Amino acid sequence: MVPIYEQLINQIKNHIIKGELKENDLLPSVRALSADLKISALTVKKAYDKLEEEGFVITVHGKGTFVAATNQQLAMEARRKAVEEDFVKAMVHAREIGMTLEEVREFVELMLESGEL
Q1: Which of 1, 19, 78, 99 would you label with 56, given CA atoms 20 to 30 Å apart?
Q2: Over the stretch 66-85, which tens digit does the pLDDT of each residue have?
Q3: May I ask the CATH architecture of the domain 4-67?
């Protein structure tokens, strides 16, 4: 289970990385988003604070939270980190079901050859 604030962080990051949210775009207010999603305002605030720490958004007191200037290096690193985390989870799962390293390699090679990856 991924905590709600982390899910929110990941969704906002994905929108920024994909260019769906652009520099200086205003994010919904904490209250509006919490009401929309039917979650605690503290959860939204925690997500916005974390996004600000990571440089994805800027909060201007009295005006709102805005998408920060997009740093391509930061965006690329976020993408790589997300892929790495997913890959680690897949590898852990493969080990849990008893796959050997060689079986994992063969599986990845088959997926690449078939065009599924």
Answers
A1: 1
A2: 999 876 677 778 778 888 98
A3: Orthogonal Bundle (1.10)
Structure tokens at 109: 């090679």
Q: What one-character-per-residue DSSP string does 59-80 give? A: EETTTEEEEPPP-HHHHHHHHH
pLDDT on residue 71: 64
Task: Give pTM, 2 decimals.
Answer: 0.68
Q: State both tokens at 69.
A: 């200037």
Q: Is the dihedral of CA 48, 54, 55, 56 positive or negative?
A: negative
Sign of CA dihedral 25, 28, 30, 33: negative
What are the domain boundaries of the chain? 4-67, 72-114
Q: How far apart are CA 29 and CA 27, in angstroms?
A: 6
